Amino acid sequence: MENKTHYIVALVEDKPGVMQRVSGLLSRRNFNIKSISVGATEKLGISRITMTLKGQEEVLEQVIKQLNKLIEVVKVLGIEKDESVIRELVLIKVNTATVSARAEVVQYANIFRGRVVDVAKDSMVIEITGDESKINAFIELMRSYGVKEVARTGKTIMTRGKKIVSIKGK
Amino acid sequence: MKMSGARAIVSGLEKEGVEVIFGIPGGQSIPLYDALYDSSMNHILTRHEQGAAHAADGYARASGKVGVCSATSGPGATNLTTGIANAYMDSSPIVAITGQVPRASIGKDAFQETDIIGITMPVTKQSFQLRSVAEIPEVIKSSFYIAKTGRPGPVLIDIPKDIQEIEDEIDFNVKLELNGYKPTLRGHPRQIKEAAKLILEAERPVIIAGGGVIISEASEELMELARLIGAPVTTTLMGKGSFPEMDPLALGVLGMHGRKAANYAVTDSDVLISIGMRFSDRSTGAVSCFAPDAKIIHIDIDPAEIGKNVSVDIPVVGDAKTVLKELIRVLRKIMESEKSKAWQEKIKIWKKEFSPKMDYDDVPLKPHRVIKEIMDFLSEDDIVTTEVGQCQMWAHHYMGRSKPRSFISSGGLGTMGFGFPAAMGAKVAKPDVNVIDIAGDGSFLMNIQELATVVENNINVVVGVFDNHYLGMVRQWQELFYDRRYSSVYLGNLPDFVKVAEGFGALGIRVEKPEEIRPALKEAFNAGKPVVLDFMIEHECNIFPMVPPGRCLKDIME
Ligand SMILES: Cc1ncc(C[n+]2csc(CCOP(=O)(O)OP(=O)(O)O)c2C)c(N)n1
Ligand SMILES: [Mg+2]
Predict the structure, then answer these.
(1) Domain check: are B155 and B116 in the same one?
(2) Taking the mean position of all CA atoms in its chain, how far away is CA B465?
(3) Over 80: is that where the pLDDT of A170 sits?
(4) Which of A16, A17, A71 sits opposite B181 (nearest CB)?
(5) CA triplet B444, B449, B455: central angle to 5 degrees?
(6) Shared-domain flag, residues B151 and B209
(7) SS3 for B116-179, per residue?
(8) Ligand 1 lining (C-beta closer than 6 Å)
(9) CA pair distance B240, A59, nearest whole angstrom
(10) N or C, fewer C-beta in 10 Å, chain A?
């Protein structure tokens, strides 16, 4: 059967050890997680965890059910790619020892709607957000200059339009 | 009201109706034990924390109430973990309380510090480390609520020593807010209707009852359903006792060491009604040939069990009792005629043909004979616990039980050393019934120190040691699958369990001949003290029937 990429969003109570419970569960149950990111939400005391995993449909179902069993997990949803905006933020430190390299990298960054956030004598840090293919394409381009360092946040995701992933009540 | 953390914990436990705590104190739980000194709750000092955890588990399984155990930080806490894992695998409600180093020392590798929350995270339903005195009422209330509701399981509360000592305002009037925890009790009406329709179409229905039937106290409904649709009933190890095994509709136990009739009936069934069970590999054999022609209805309170091991046709998430009641109601409404008796006739023939032989007269004793004598001696309310190994499977296969909570065994984890402390816990919960641990010699040695506890506290349980001088189950696998290369399974001729029992102040009786069994049982259950019965059984007797691991339920070795 086909291994597809799946996206899961979990809304969790912001209590000690929650991330440990979630990540421990995922590895213990042998789920292959590609990325996981966490941050605050519109509600005080509720955090949002976004997970990307590769696997079959049944695996996705098991992950969601197992996550739902955690006491602090209030809501879990599998999210379809077509109905959502998926973004990732990346910082890339590129080798720019020559003047021409510097100019070119800045140009590419502009084309990709990235920003130069740090300039040193022989390197630059570019910040870029976007979906996976855009980011991968940019990193590939940078390789010819020499990529010194890449830091990716992991994906974060939001459904388009009417559908809202949130918790009712106070 | 202002009180110390320790006092608040004790009050909280009392308010939950806790009557007994099994445990051992230590440096980081002295303040808690100081508060216990004035409590009406009974604290039973076990001789090892593993014994305390299993005792709490046995207490919970015998009574249906939450069992409580306690240990100090570090080694005390780690000693509890096997018992916690055992309770987790078998969905048994216990609350484990551990002392912890003071908050200021956490993370510094202080003396006897361990991250017990981290260690037990995979084997607890929930855990808490207290961060303030004020939160004690809420944490205790949530712990008991989480442990016993939904799919039950162990909850751990880790209490830093300084929190036990500090005084603060305590308000026990707390309302629980568990937004992420809402077990589904009622089955979905449409699913129940679908299930009913499928059941009416069935020609060869079989019911598999698991531990969930016992937990939800659904035995009456199970019986009603079985009678109504004329379906035979088999149970898993955890479900043993949920349906009386002497009933004409009873198939006996299922699985690797199940009854032949049960394994055959499940394999040949066209509709399987699986209730409160999780399709463990020990029950199903190879999944590829498990009930190949059957449509499967799966009733379980844990949605994550649906489709985990076996794909099912009609899942019903909910509490077994609630769902069965509704299912029966729907069935009665739409059922028209009696079901054909052909399937039941076939079952009857299988049961007769495959009825196990137990009346051996051999010396050394055959385990079957010992099981039979014990079974005949006990009444249906008495409680049998087991250790793990051949002893467990002899009891599982051969000993008929007819009441829920009358058979207590380590199913999911298969923990040697469980049966004896569990028997102790069960006897504390039900002091008026006879309690016997069906023990292997290897297993008994793993928590034999609890003889001191039962003697000291007059907890008069009987341990029946199936003394084969071997780690018999492993030896059997080595004999059958590894060319008889017996590697590290011989236990030797010692210890002398009679003398060991006497050394602890219990009574020891050696039993060598079949005719000695019954008198020994009589003496044991009337001794007025704990007793060890040393049954000298045939050393290399195997437990059959057996479905080799990874094979189909019908591939039975005898
Ligand atoms: C704590 C633990 N250690 C090891 C095992 C593996 N094991 C399973 S059965 C068994 C042998 C049990 O021997 P005994 O208690 O004498 O029972 P018998 O099989 O001889 O009846 C062993 C070692 C286990 N289940 N639990
Ligand atoms: Mg043995």
Answers:
(1) yes
(2) 19
(3) no
(4) A71
(5) 105
(6) no
(7) HHHHHHHHCCEEEECCCCCCHHHHHHHHHHHHHCCCCCCEEEEEEHHHHHCEEECCCCCCCCCC
(8) B 387-391, 414-417, 440-443, 466, 468, 470-474
(9) 31
(10) C
CB pair distance less than 8 Å for A73 and B308? no
Kindly give, in sequence order, each residue whose CB lies less than 8 Å from that of residue A99, ignoring residues fewer than 6 positions away. Answer: none
Task: Look at residue A149 and tell me if it is in a domain.
Answer: yes
Q: Do the beta carbons of residue B256 and residue B192 sit within 8 Å?
A: no
Q: Give CA angle at A110 (A105, A114), nearest 5°.
A: 90
Tokens linked to B476: 């059997």
Cβ-based neighbour number of residue B148 at 10 Å: 20
Tell me which residues of chain B have a pLDDT lower than 50.
Answer: none
What's the pTM? Answer: 0.96
Question: Domain of A105: which CATH number?
Answer: 3.30.70.1150
Task: Encode pLDDT of A59-110 as tens digits.
Answer: 889 999 999 999 999 999 999 889 999 999 999 999 999 999 999 999 999 9
Rounded Cα distance between B338 and B229, Å, is 8
Q: Could you tell me if B232 and B130 lie in one domain?
A: no
Amino acid at B236: T
Domain count for chain B, please give it: 3
Query: Which among B128, B181, B184, B300 is the top mutation candidate for probing chain A, defined by the most A β-carbons within 10 Å of its own β-carbon?
Result: B181
Locate B493 and state its tokens. Answer: 């001729």
Q: What is the pLDDT of residue A3?
A: 81
Report the residue from B121, B304, B307 with minimal CB separation from A21. Answer: B121
Q: What is the DSSP letter of B101?
A: -
Q: Whose CA is nearest to atom 11 of ligand 1?
A: B471
Same domain, B386 and B320: no
From the number of C-beta atoms within 10 Å of its C-beta (0-12, 13-18, 19+), residue B492 rates as exposed
**Nearest Cα residue in chain B from A12:** B180
Angle at which helix B75-89 crosses helix B49-63, to 10 degrees, equals 30
Chain A touched by B307 (CB under 8 Å): yes
For β-strands B2-4 and B167-169, DSSP reports them as antiparallel
The residue range of the domain holding B119 is 2-169
Is residue B552 one of the residues assigned to a domain?
no
Q: How far apart are CA B180 and CA A11, in angstroms?
A: 9
Closest CA to B299 of B313, B285, B286, B283: B313
Cα–Cα distance measured from residue B355 to residue B248, given in angstroms and rounded to the nearest whole number = 13
Nearest partner of B75 among B43, B103, B107, B116, judged by Cα: B116
Judged by a CB distance cut-off of 8 A, whether residue B138 touches chain A is no
B336 included as an active-site residue: no
CB–CB of A62 and B308 under 8 A? yes
pLDDT single digits (tens) B456-489? 999 999 999 999 999 999 999 999 999 999 999 9
